[in-house]
Amino acid sequence: MPLIEVTDLRKSYGSRVAVHGVSFTVERGEIFGILGTNGAGKTTTVECLQGLRRADGGTISVLGLDPVADRAALTRRVGVQLQESRLPAKLRVREALELFASFYPDPADVDVLLDRLGLREHACRSFGKLSGGQKQRVSVALALVGQPELAILDELTTGLDPHARRETWELVEGIRATGVTVLLVTHFMDEAERLCDRVAIFDAGRVVATGTPGGLRQSVNASTLDDAFVSLTRSAR
Amino acid sequence: MTAFAKITATETKLFLRSPFMAVAGLLLPAVLLLAIGAIPGMTKPSEVTGGYRFIDAWVPSLIVMSLAMLALQSIPAAVAAYREQGVLRRLATTPVHPANLLGAQLLIHVVVALAGIGLVLGLADAVYDVPLPKHPVSFALTLVLGTVSMFALGLVAAAVARTARAAGAIAMVAFVPAMFFGGVYLPRPLLPEVVRRIGDYVPPGSQSLQDAWVGTGVQPLQLVVLAAFAVTGTALAARLFRWE
Description:
The complex is a heterodimer of chains A (about 240) and B (about 240). By secondary structure, chain A is α/β, with parallel strands linked by helices. Chain A is about 35% helix and about 25% strand. Chain A is built from nine helices and nine strands. Chain A has helices at about 40-50, 70-75, 95-100, 110-115, 130-145, 160-175, 190-195, 215-220, 225-235; strands at about 5-15, 15-25, 30-35, 55-60, 80, 150-155, 180-185, 200-205, 205-210. Chain A has a six-stranded mixed beta sheet with strand order 5-6-7-3-8-9, with helices on both faces. In chain A, strands 2-1-4 form a three-stranded antiparallel beta sheet, covered by helices on one side. The two termini of chain A are about 35 Å apart. Chain B is mainly α and about 240 residues long. Chain B has ten helices and no strands. In chain B, helix 1 (about 5-15) crosses helix 5 (about 100-130) and helix 6 runs parallel beside helix 10 (about 220-240). The two termini of chain B are about 25 Å apart. Classes of the chains: A alpha/beta (about 240), B mainly alpha (about 240). The interface of A and B includes residues 87, 99 and 103 of A.
């Protein structure tokens, strides 16, 4: 059984249709990319997966659970990094990890996590004083502190410099190596090509293509995923 | 430690790391009490204040000030900031509901407000011989209703504001009247009769506090109005509050 199964998901805000019949599956142990430009319906889809929003139609199964009806059970098994979510500026890194660890029945060891994410030397620094890359590492650490089976990472490297982006990519590969399935939401094609086993390309609330980055390139004779993305989303317009 | 206890401990640390509000709510009323008391004439009975000393008439206003700063300035900004920063939303994806964070904030602010009020009462008694409230039960009842109504109004502001800045601005709508009618800007005995009569019914009920204090007996209608503010405000805040 797939870890995530989305069938004909629909969601509107008033008269604006955000998600227009989206279907895809994510297998256990893969890094699955949700690709698309801003407003393509990526974040709405992910919010429905997390149970933060109630879908208007279609079915969603995450770890065999209904995100809305079984939200309590789901939150214990899914770790989340949200786009544009900050921590209080004066909260220290270790305090944040210890706080979030107290939310879960079987949390990761905070010291082990600090080492793993290279945050040991920053453990006593305030969140507000960290660099962009360090902040992202903290938010990844918070997503992992509950020892989740699935990690949902939304726009993880937006706003990071090239070095910090590459470090973050290594981190994501490290997460998968520990057996955690990763759902990566991004609009960076190089990131998806480097990290993702499979991707779903979103455009205007629909999935226009699903497959491996290599397979999608070949399907439209493109040399990069970037070119493939442009060609696939253009033909859908 | 339960998640709520852990959140409360962490929030307390954060509260103390930005001590401006803590200091303002806890110490400013006490400092003002000492400053006003040091002015000659403030501690002598006066006809303007109906035979009481000015300082006797002003202590309830200091309670108003403590509650107004914490309930109508500090907590709306803090809670709206958590929404603005996405902290409430982030918590919603964990097994712990963001209501725990709101509860921790309320607990901390109420404790600081009561500590500030306790400090004013203690100092007024010790330094200026302002006797403790003559009707402690009705004083406590008024204080509970006043505290609930003020924090409910503060949370209504936090509920409808998208940003911390907006929360502060919205809360001003309640903050300024509470301070004005509560006699913080101008002592209540000096306010025009009509303003004073309106002020009798404005949270957190400084006239009722005063009446309970000097023992003339609290007007039931004033308490009923205060209770109505508390109930309506709480219901409105609960209805309007968005966790995201």
